[in-house]
């Protein structure tokens, strides 16, 4: 795998996150619908991160920014994964 592949992977991921996130924003989403149908939702509790800035596929609770929430999620995931791989690669170079 080369840098060009990862660059294209990042670009495609960001475009998909920004565009497709709006289609995944139905209310209720598929998982919520199934849990409501089978009575599982009655036992659900609020997630500890429910009040976080990117909760419920939105930025600050505003549904108009669903695509932005998707892009921010991809950026955070790529940064975390990239940092982890960079650290692991550095450790393997030391040996």
Shape: elongated
> Which class do the helix and strand fractions yield?
mainly alpha
Helix content: 55-70%
| Helix and strand element order | HHH
- Average of pLDDT: 86
Counting H and I runs of at least 4 residues, what is the number of helices?
3
Largest β-sheet summary: none
- Supply the number of structural domains: 1
Taking all Cα atoms into account, the compactness measure Rg is: 18 Å
Number of strands: 0
Separation, N- and C-terminal Cα atoms: 23 Å
Strand residue content: under 5%
Low-confidence stretches: none
Protein name: Cobalt/nickel transport protein
Keywords: Cell membrane, Membrane, Signal, Transmembrane, Transmembrane helix
Signal peptide: 1-24
Subcellular location: Cell membrane
Q: Overview of this structure, please?
A:
Helices cover 58% and strands 0% of the residues. It has helices at 3-20, 30-37, 66-94. The mean pLDDT is 86. The chain has 3 helices and no strands. With 95 residues, it is an all-alpha fold. It has one domain (3-88). The chain crosses the membrane at residues 65-88. InterPro entries: PDGLE_dom (IPR025937). It comes from Saccharothrix ecbatanensis. This is Cobalt/nickel transport protein. It holds the Pfam family PDGLE.
What is the element layout, followed by pairings?
Blueprint: H1 3-20, H2 30-37, H3 66-94
Helix pairs in contact: 1-3
Subcellular location: Cell membrane
Transmembrane segments: 65-88
Protein name: Cobalt/nickel transport protein
């Amino acid at each position: 795998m080369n840098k060009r592949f990862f660059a294209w992977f990042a670009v495609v991921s960001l475009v998909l996150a920004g565009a497709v996130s709006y289609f995944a924003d139905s209310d209720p989403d598929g998982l919520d619908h199934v849990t409501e149908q089978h009575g599982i939702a009655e036992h659900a509790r609020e997630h500890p991160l429910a009040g976080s800035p990117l909760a419920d596929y939105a930025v600050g609770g505003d549904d108009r920014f669903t695509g932005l929430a998707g892009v921010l999620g991809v950026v955070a995931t790529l940064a975390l994964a990239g940092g982890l791989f960079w650290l692991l690669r550095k450790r393997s170079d030391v040996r």
